[in-house]
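Re: your question from the hallway

Yes, I did run it. Sequences:
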Amino acid sequence: MNEFFSMLFDTSTALGWTVITLLKVLGFVVVLLISLAFILLADRKIWAAVQMRKGPNVVGAFGLLQSFADFLKFAFKEVIIPAGTDKFIFIMAPFLSLTMAFIAWAVIPVAPGWVISDLNVGILYLLAISSLGVYGIILGGWASNSKYSFLGALRSTAQMVSYEVSIGFVIVTVLLLAGSMNLSEIVEAQAGGFWHWYGIALSPITLVMLPMMVVFFISALAETNRPPFDLPEAESELVAGYQVEYSSTLYLLFMIGEYLNIVLMCAMVTILFLGGWHAPFDFAPFTWVPPFVWFSIKLLFIFFLFAMVKAIVPRYRYDQLMRLGWKVFLPISMSAVVLVSAWVVFVQGGA
Amino acid sequence: MDLAVLLPAVAFYVFAGAAILFAFGVVSARNPVRSVLFLIMTFFSAAGLFVLMGAEFLAMILIMVYVGAVAVLFLFVVMMLDIDLVEARQGFADYLPLGGLLAFILTVELIVLGASWHVSAKADGLRQAPISADQDNLRAISEVLYTDYAFFIEAAGLVLLVAMIGAIVLTNFHKKGVKRQSISAQVARKAEDGVELVDVKPGQGL
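Structure:
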């Protein structure tokens, strides 16, 4: 019996590896879903506070259980599938969107060694998966067989494809500095206090990297269809964009996928620019705090910024959005890649 | 049988079989959108095969470029065009012999190529991976592309640039009479440029 258990948790055997990985996946999914419930509530509370409202405050103390009440409501409503839809694709699209949001988390290191798969090309994997997120939206919009959905899906896809380009270039600057595509190694390269974090390092290259962090943040807003770039669901023009025809559980899946992507983007800002799980100072009282806590604090801070942007910035016009992506961010991030590579070769002396 | 040998073999046959099945789905699906979806699944299976060969960089690039960009454009076009399937399938029997002949010739060529590659005198050298074992494939590819063949990459980049400019020149028309937005002029404009305050005396017009 004892032997069986030692084999079960020994990652060198096939069985042990499977069990350990499954446990890790389960842990990630459970923690993500539960924290998502409260992050959703925080989003609404911050939004309300900016507008001097109270926000949800009825279900549970301070409205803490609001998300769970919403979840139950969604789950018990009727799934309406409009006539003329492509039924298979209509049902598949939200699942696709949720799955893509979840599997991106497979390479996110939240603390030293706390990662499902420490992939060598982790950052490429993230880029590849985030480019797949488009499919849930475009297929959902098309399969609904409605003009509003289809227009919303087209807008959303064009927007995501455009901003992926600048996100890709910003990521290239970081991996040039870190010299690795492995996310854990990128975090390790920023060890030793906040003056080593790529976004705010005490070094001349910060003049390039700090704007890159801002570009990444704004592109992340566009990539996740958050305000001020929520054109795909601009309610004054398209009712609700690609999700007009979705109801109950299918809509819930879309929404969870959307918020998971937002949190993923916050995690990426944390890992790429804010030193991941490292404490801001590498001496006594700060290093006592567990790495996971630091990671969460930074992630939540970035999410707070996401929520504030939603509350205080008006929506962009669509042509302005496209102009910002292609004519402003793309040239800026491309020249940043040139500058950072020059810095790495001529100042740091690496290649 | 050893699991370490068995598992990759099983994975290979699963991915390869899936690739062929999905590829068949691409040409046989009645709905063009479904057809593109099959194409995406074919790309995925091919990416899985790349991972099995230890070329995870190529696998990621395949997904990023083909699934993330090219197939999205296909999907865009297919969704917006209203393709009449009945019309598209007319003349199927007329083209069958020619298409079959082409497919047959291609298959024979592939078989001959594969067989001669196997029995070639230089077979061992051809089959050797051009990278040393202590290097990961990412570094190996970048060394080949950006150090050994840097000028060819740049030449290819120039060709792409010319093609891009050509596409823009061919499709970019400025209609006369359409007002265009000039962001700099818009930002530089002040209240004094557009507003004039006039003191109007009571009982008089302007």
